[in-house]
Amino acid sequence: MQPDTALIYLRISANRTSEHASIQQQRDDCTALAARLGYIRTVEFVDEAVSAYGERTRPGYQQLLQRIAVAPATVVVWHLDRLYRRPNELEQLLDLLDTSQVRIEAVQGGSFDLNRHEGRLFARQLVAFANYESAHRGARVARAQQQRAGRGLLHGGSHYGYQHNGALEPFQAGIVRQIVDDYLIGLSPTAIAHELTRDGVPAPRGGKWNGTTVSEILTSDRLHHRRFHRPTANLIVAIWDQLISDDESTLVQLGLLLPPRDASRSSTTLLGGILRCRGCGRRLVAGVTRFGRRIYSCRTALARCPGPTLDACQMDEQITIAAVEQFSHAWRPHVPPPEELLQTIRTAREDLASFAISFGAGRLDHNGYLTMRDPLDRVLTVGGIGFAAHRQARVLRLATAEFHHRWATSLPFRRAVICALLPDLDGTSPLEPRADLSG
Ligand SMILES: [Zn+2]
């Protein structure tokens, strides 16, 4: 990819007439913006009449992702909502950033550097809000279901983990229990799905598990033992068996509200995307030198970063020793009350979303947006630290035999444990005392 070429992505959605901008109008605006930014050439990726909410894939978007994957790129769109509407589409895009640099320029609403924390956070706010809206718009509850709801019963049909009478189904309930336990020590839904498939556990509808199925279980009302009477939106006392404790339910909801951690992304190496660069603070990526030596390096900074390149074998060995040693100490981190954490984070997220909407709609300028956002950002950071303390505590409560078995057999488990017990590794010695970890 030549640096003087911008990638233009155009999409028209069939079902959102209020935001309607024709392909030609988007094209004209995007081309003009690319020219203003100094790009001489443009390459277009177009999806026409594809609803972002349908099951159909967007071929133009997929081609765009493939281009981004191979080289640094600038993507020009008419509005951010052309690019992704569902959280998993954004995460797919962010996943690519481990190996590439992507800058997003939008005709409406300014530019976002998705390689930077604030750009990612902002993009996630927007997509979370769009998704929330669409889920509510699409909600249609049948009369019979409402009546069941009114009596505190599960929806009709089968429910993974439960029998028809609302009692637990022992095998499936055990799997759900495992999913919750793994999620709360830091495994991502995708990693959990891989592990279940690897262990030969059949998915709810047969075949392989995927991240979406795991996420559906984690977000389900039946897991959180809550039921709403749709016409009144009143909470009804659920009368089916409870599978997890109230605190665990609160922590799962908290985890789903906080931005996913970079380190929760899948990787085939122990520390890729986990170690931070001592020079610039970015996450290091794994690679292999032309002499075949495995390394972790700060490749995303395009050679301008003075940060060191680390020998991967040596780092893996050193961090493994440190993590296992932390586990064997059996210390107890201080954990803040889950319900308090959840309320604080929920309020901050709602405020952030409304500021982001105001900014996107032009009612708030960039400086005004930053001023409103910064204190909330800090609230989220503190909340993230509180949630991390719970992850630490849960890892430390694992039975010794189980810990060592899973350490030996599961890479996602090792990565989760390292993130929980040794946060913010920067490639200096991880063998420091744990005093600074438990705050
Ligand atoms: Zn660096």
Name the beta content range: 5-15%
Q: What is the total tally of β strands?
A: 10
Total helices: the number is: 15
- Structural class from helices and strands? alpha/beta
Largest sheet: 5 strands, mixed
Residues in helices, as a percent range? 40-55%
Report Rg. 23 Å
Care to describe what's here?
- This protein is of the alpha/beta class and about 450 residues long.
- Helix content is about 50%, strand content about 10%.
- The longest helix is centred in the C-terminal third of the chain and has 31 residues, at about 365-395.
- About 35% of the residues are buried.
- Zinc ion (ZN) binds near residues 279, 280, 282, 298 and 301.
Brief summary of the model shown:
This is DNA invertase Pin-like site-specific DNA recombinase. InterPro entries: DNA_bind_recomb_sf, DNA_bind_recombinase_dom, Resolv_N, Resolvase-like_N_sf, SSR_resolvase. With 439 residues, this protein is an alpha/beta fold.
Q: What key attributes describe this structure?
A:
alpha/beta, Hect, E3 ligase catalytic domain fold, three-stranded antiparallel beta sheet, 15 helices, Resolvase-like_N_sf, disordered C terminus, Rossmann fold, 439 residues, binds zinc ion
